[in-house]
Write a structure and sequence with these properties.
1% strand; globular
Length: 329
C-alpha cells in the first residue's frame, strides 16, 4: 500500500505540469535573446552619452534577467535531468524555483520604480501630486508582493501552492493595477504636453500608443497567469506564464527606452521613400520641401531630448524654446 505522500504521484500529468514549465523556459530564453538585442541597440544609440542613470538601470535589469533565466533553467534541469524517473522528487519545490520568483519580483518592482521616475521627470514644472500618488501605489504593492513571497517560502511541495492561491491572485492583481496606473499617468502627462506643432504632437500621439501597448502587454501577461491559476490550479500552466512575466517587463521597458531609435528608423524609411518617388525635373519648391523635411526631423528629435537640455529652433523667434521635458530616453 502506498503512503499518503505517494498517493498523488500516479495522478501527475507530466505534460500539463513540467511539460508546460519546459515550454515556458524555452519562450523565456527567446525573450531573453530579444532583450539582449534591445540592450545592444540602446547602448549603440547612446554610446556617446557616457554612463547615465538609465544605462546603469539597463545593466541592472539585464543582470537580473540573465540570473532569472539561469534559475529557471536549473529548475528544469533538476526535475527533468538530475531526477529523471525519480517521481518522488517531482513533488518537491526546488530552491531555484523559489529564488527565481524572488528575482522576478525584483525585476517587476525595479521596472515600476523606473516608470515612476520617468513620471517624476515628465511632471517637472507641474504639480507633483501625480508622481507621488503613483509612487504610493507602487510602495503599497510591495507589501502585497512580500506577502506572496512569505507564503511561497512556507510551501515545500507543489500541492501546497493550492493553499496559497490567495497570495498569487493578490500579487498579480496588484501588478496589473500598477501597470494600468503607470500607463494612464504617462499618457495623461504626454496628452497635456502638446506643443501645438503638428509634427511634435504627432510624435506624442505615437508615444502614447507605444506606452499603452507596452502597458497592455504586461497587464495581459499578469491577467493570463491569474486566469489560468483560477481555471487550472492543479497544473503548472500559470507558473509557466509567470516565468515569462519578468522577460515581458524587461522587454517592454527597453522598447520604451529605444522608442526614439525605432521611430527614427521609420521616419528615415518614409523620407527615403518620398525622396525616391520625386520626379527628376527641377522645381524650386523641391528645396523648400527638403528644408521642411529637415525641420520636421529636428522637431521630432526634440521630443526625445534629455530633461536638462533645451533646444532653440533657429527658424523660430529666440523667445520660443522647445523643452526636452517630454524626454523618454
Amino acid at each position: 500500500m502506498s503512503s499518503p505522500a505517494q498517493d498523488p504521484i500516479p495522478q501527475l500529468d507530466i505534460g500539463d505540469t513540467f511539460g508546460a514549465l519546459f515550454i515556458g523556459v524555452i519562450i523565456a530564453a527567446v525573450l531573453f535573446g530579444l532583450s539582449n538585442v534591445q540592450t545592444f541597440i540602446y547602448f549603440q544609440t547612446y554610446r556617446d552619452t557616457g554612463m547615465t542613470f538609465f544605462k546603469l538601470a539597463v545593466i541592472y535589469l539585464w543582470i537580473f534577467d540573465a540570473l532569472h533565466l539561469a534559475l529557471i533553467i536549473h529548475c528544469m534541469y533538476y526535475y527533468l535531468v538530475i531526477n529523471y524517473a525519480n517521481v518522488n522528487a517531482l513533488t518537491e519545490i526546488v530552491w531555484s524555483f523559489k529564488l527565481s520568483l524572488v528575482i522576478e519580483v525584483f525585476i517587476v518592482y525595479a521596472v515600476h520604480i523606473l516608470y515612476v521616475y520617468r513620471i517624476w521627470i515628465f511632471s517637472k514644472g507641474r504639480s507633483r501630486t501625480l508622481p507621488i500618488a503613483v509612487g504610493i501605489v507602487i510602495i503599497l504593492n510591495s507589501g502585497v508582493v512580500i506577502a506572496l513571497l512569505w507564503a511561497l517560502y512556507q510551501c515545500h511541495v507543489f500541492s501546497d501552492l493550492v493553499k496559497v492561491e490567495w497570495a498569487t491572485y493578490m500579487a498579480l492583481a496588484a501588478i496589473t493595477f500598477a501597470d494600468i496606473v503607470i500607463a494612464s499617468s504617462l499618457c495623461y502627462l504626454l496628452a497635456t504636453s502638446r506643443t501645438g506643432f503638428s509634427s511634435t504632437d504627432s510624435w506624442i500621439t505615437k508615444l502614447m500608443a507605444y506606452i499603452i501597448n507596452t502597458g497592455c502587454l504586461t497587464s495581459v501577461c499578469s491577467l493570463t497567469a491569474m486566469i489560468t491559476c483560477a481555471a487550472m490550479p492543479h497544473n503548472f500552466v500559470f507558473l509557466a506564464i509567470e516565468f515569462l512575466l519578468a522577460k515581458v517587463y524587461v522587454n517592454s521597458f527597453l522598447a520604451l527606452l529605444n522608442a526614439r531609435h525605432y521611430m527614427q528608423v521609420n521616419t528615415d524609411t518614409d523620407n527615403s521613400y518620398q525622396f525616391h518617388n520625386r520626379h527628376g525635373v527641377y522645381r524650386p519648391e523641391l528645396h523648400i520641401g527638403a528644408s521642411e523635411d529637415e525641420g520636421l526631423r529636428t522637431s521630432r528629435n526634440d521630443v526625445f531630448k534629455h530633461p536638462d537640455v533645451e533646444v532653440v529652433d533657429p527658424s523660430r523667434p529666440e523667445s520660443v524654446k522647445v523643452s526636452g521635458k517630454f524626454c523618454l530616453i
